[in-house]
Amino acid sequence: MINIAIFASGSGSNAENITNYFKEREDVSIKLIVSNKKDAYVHERAEKLGIESVTFSKNSFENTNEVLDCLKSKQIDFIVLAGFLLKVPQNIIDAYSQRIINIHPALLPKFGGKGMYGDNVHKAVVAAEEVESGITIHYINENYDEGNIIYQAKCDVLPTDTYEDVAEKVHKLEYLHFPEVIDKVLNHTIK
């Protein structure tokens, strides 16, 4: 059994989608939702899905082993970042080397780095008059959005598209591809 923790800071739609993808599986369990925001809607989703969720402060992430100790106590094998806005600290990166993946709402290396998340990314894509955007699923390292790329999927950006239009297209790609790519990474059919 592979136990997964999903880290999320917001509504948790990707966390729910991933959980539903794996819910009938006997070899994979979404065991824990970790957030840095106690009022994030992901906690309500977790409760409805019957998954334990916990909140840790930014200080707990950055300056203690509380998060790492929690992950170890829950026997977490793999971490998925799904809309998690804090930088993962080095102690967790070291403990879960090549076992933490993230989804980014653009085609890295474009539109990555600190502050590039959610609508900020889509607004930047539209402002730059890009003709395509998409998703990047990648391993994480000590730098924002610089880990090795596992998978990318693209969508067209039309001259008439607003950032909301781009966001909708990108969300569809996230929901379609993220759970399958996680599955392939866990089964070593994609690296």
UniProtKB/TrEMBL annotation:
Gene Ontology molecular-function annotations: phosphoribosylglycinamide formyltransferase activity
Reaction equation(s) it catalyzes: N(1)-(5-phospho-beta-D-ribosyl)glycinamide + (6R)-10-formyltetrahydrofolate = N(2)-formyl-N(1)-(5-phospho-beta-D-ribosyl)glycinamide + (6S)-5,6,7,8-tetrahydrofolate + H(+)
InterPro entries with a match to the protein in the record: Formyl_transf_N, Formyl_transf_N_sf, GART
EC number: 2.1.2.2
Domain Formyl transferase N-terminal span(s) in chain numbering: 3-182
Record's signal peptide: none
Ligand binding (N(1)-(5-phospho-beta-D-ribosyl)glycinamide): G12, S13, N14
Gene Ontology CC annotations of this record: cytosol
Keywords: Purine biosynthesis, Transferase
Pfam family name, one: Formyl_trans_N
Pathway: Purine metabolism; IMP biosynthesis via de novo pathway; N(2)-formyl-N(1)-(5-phospho-D-ribosyl)glycinamide from N(1)-(5-phospho-D-ribosyl)glycinamide (10-formyl THF route): step 1/1
Site note Raises pKa of active site His, residues: D145
Gene Ontology biological process terms, A to Z: 'de novo' IMP biosynthetic process
Binding locations of (6R)-10-formyltetrahydrofolate: K58, N102
Active site as annotated: H104 (proton donor)
Gene3D superfamilies hit by this protein: Formyl transferase, N-terminal domain
Keyword rRNA processing belongs to the record: no
PANTHER family the record matches: PHOSPHORIBOSYLGLYCINAMIDE FORMYLTRANSFERASE (PTHR43369)
Function per UniProt: Catalyzes the transfer of a formyl group from 10-formyltetrahydrofolate to 5-phospho-ribosyl-glycinamide (GAR), producing 5-phospho-ribosyl-N-formylglycinamide (FGAR) and tetrahydrofolate.
HAMAP family, alphabetized: PurN
Family statement: Belongs to the GART family.
Cross-referenced NCBIfam families: PurN (TIGR00639)
Name of this chain's protein: Phosphoribosylglycinamide formyltransferase
Gene name of the record: purN
